[in-house]
Structures are given as structure tokens and as C-alpha cells.
């Protein structure tokens, strides 16, 4: 058993000062104010020395870590995320990959999943194959522009199986409903996300009964339909904002480039504290830095000079969110742990509660990660 003492416990909507957490058999056994608890004899004592203890971070959308693609080297990528407090990660494969490349990437990550060094890998977030070919970085290499055909996508669905937690898609693509039905047959609990899309509200809403419940990197790589030149159209972003049941993913870089700080604050106000998700969307592109972006260190560009993901880790995204919006440490833990875990159906983690997985981080008030615990075992 491990006893973490002298901690400020970060709960879903409040703090518990002078707190303690007891861990037994990889799960949270007890927690609360130290004055109300008795430390069992023989415990390994971990003194937080007044630091914050919160749930491990959950990054549901990231392609890489520390300059390593997950599909090439899942061990190195997973290690970087773990060091930054991410105890649950969903490696993301992208639409610019061919069917053969996707299958190879799935197999590589599946072979590593659950092994030492990759125990934070919990499945896949598939930003492929059927996006709108007009949106997204590296789109010149998109091999999925043609008609949606079962014989082309079914091998991917079969290989991914129940490991896929989220399929991202463009609801406006012809025959996309059949893909959704086949994906759900392979995994009835899978979620769908709208991304790289110019779908109308009605096209998005038509897929919500099947589990469309996430807006992929909200306000990025989406189009607006304009019926009248002088009026703003209604499209993906507005639909995600409107529907209470849809979570909004946000990429929060240091300069507010992916999402303007004012927009971050607006989304918080519209969606509420329990429908915002922070993601890193880390990649490994090394295209030229366009004019006007000199000195920007945490985002990447493709070879056409377009924004192509980030160099972020989720702890840094939390720090940026605090700066840009005034969010508290309670808020950012919710955006980066509880909310994403719920969004993808991982109900056994993401909060400090008895019986939940002992995935924990010890951090200072600025979200600088000091210690990482995964299923009751200290990783850092």
C-alpha cells in the first residue's frame, strides 16, 4: 500500500487541503483530510510536501510524443507522455496514411500496448480514413478522396477491433453512414467525432444517435457554409457549440494560434466545465515556418506552410489554458482528465474516487509534474 500525505487533493469541483490518498492493489483505497485518516502500518509513505495531487492526465488525441510518431516507435512516444503526467493516451493515426500504412501502424501499436513502457496506451483515436479532403494538413497526400467502399475500410475496422475508442469522420461524405454502422458492429461502444469537415448541422445531427459526441480540435480544420456572402454560415463549430452532448476538443498552444484566447474563453462559457477537453495533437512535421510565425516554438507546419499539429504535451496545454482563460487547477484537471476519460468511455479513471484506478500525478500550482503514478506504481 502507498500513502500519499501532506497533499492538496484536486477533486472534480473543489480542493481538499492537508489531504492524503491511500493506494492498494492499483486502486484508490481511501482519501480525505489527514486528520480524519489513519495511515496503515507498513505503508510506503510518499510526502507531497503541500503539492497538488490530481488524477493522471488523459490525452485522447495525439499522433506522437517527443518527436516520435506512435506508429513508428510507440515506446519512445508513450514514455514522453508518461513523463509529462499522461497516464492514459490514445495514439492517433491520420488520413494521409494508405490502408497498408494504417494497418501496419495499428499492428505496431497493438503489439506494444500493455507492455512495460506502454501501459499508458489505452487504444486508438482514428483521425482516418474519411475526412473532408479539403481540410487538414498534409492533405495533398490524402489517399481517401474517392468513394467510401467497404472492401477498402473493412480490413482497418477488423484490425482495430475494440481498441478504437474514437473514429473521426466528415458527416458530409457520401455513404458515411454505412461506415459508421460497420464500425459500431465491430465495437458497439465506439464514439464518433466530427472533424476536418464542412458538414451542416443536420448532417452532424443525423449521426449523433450512433454515438457522434466529440468535436475534433474544435474551430480547427472546419469550413463554414455561406448561403449569403454578407452573413456568417452555420457549420461544424456552431453545431458543436450548440449541442450539449458534444464535447469540444481544444488545442491550447502558448500563443493562442490554434484557438484564439478569446475563443477559448467563449467555448468555456458556451460548453460549460464538463464538455471541454484539452488535447495535445502532437505530431512530427518539420515544414518551413511561414512568415509571421517566427519564434513560435510549440506548433508545427507541413511542407505547404500550413499549421500541422503541435509539440505540446498535455501538462503544458493545461498551463496555457490557465494563462489564456484564467482557468483554475481544478478546471484544467477536469479538462485534461475527467472529461476526456468520460468522453471515450473510460469510466475507471480520471478522478480521485474510491475504487478508481490509482493513476495520479503530483504537481505544483503551475502544473509542473513532479511525480507520476500509474495503477499504483510510481513511474517518475
Question: Care to describe what's here?
Answer:
This protein is of the alpha/beta class and 380 residues long. The chain contains nine helices and 20 strands. The protein has helices at residues 74-83, 99-112, 150-160, 176-186, 201-205, 236-242, 261-271, 314-325, 329-343, and strands at residues 2-10, 15-24, 27-33, 44-47, 52-55, 57-62, 64-65, 68-69, 86-94, 124-127, 164-169, 191-194, 212-215, 247-251, 276-279, 299-301, 307-310, 360-363, 369-374, 377-378. The strands form four sheets. Strands 1, 2, 3, 4, 5, 18, 19 and 20 form an eight-stranded mixed beta sheet that branches. Helix 4 links the parallel strand 11 and strand 12 (191-194). Helix 2 (99-112) packs parallel to helix 3 and helix 8 crosses helix 9 (329-343). It is globular and about 65 Å long.
List keywords for this structure.
380 residues, globular, alpha/beta, eight-stranded parallel sheet
Give the terminus-to-terminus CA distance: 17 Å
Helix content range: 25-40%
Q: Provide mean pLDDT, rounded.
A: 95
Largest sheet: 8 strands, mixed
Helix and strand sequence: EEEEEEEEHEHEHEHEHEHEHEEEHHEEE
- Strand count: 20
**Quaternary form:** single chain
Structural class by SSE content: alpha/beta
Brief characterization of the structure:
The chain is an alpha/beta fold and 380 residues long.
What topology emerges from the helices and strands here?
Elements: E1 2-10, E2 15-24, E3 27-33, E4 44-47, E5 52-55, E6 57-62, E7 64-65, E8 68-69, H1 74-83, E9 86-94, H2 99-112, E10 124-127, H3 150-160, E11 164-169, H4 176-186, E12 191-194, H5 201-205, E13 212-215, H6 236-242, E14 247-251, H7 261-271, E15 276-279, E16 299-301, E17 307-310, H8 314-325, H9 329-343, E18 360-363, E19 369-374, E20 377-378
Parallel strand pairs: 1-4, 1-5, 6-9, 9-10, 10-11, 11-12, 12-13, 13-14, 14-15
Antiparallel strand pairs: 1-2, 2-3, 5-18, 7-8, 16-17, 18-19, 19-20
Helix pairs in contact: 2-3, 3-4, 8-9
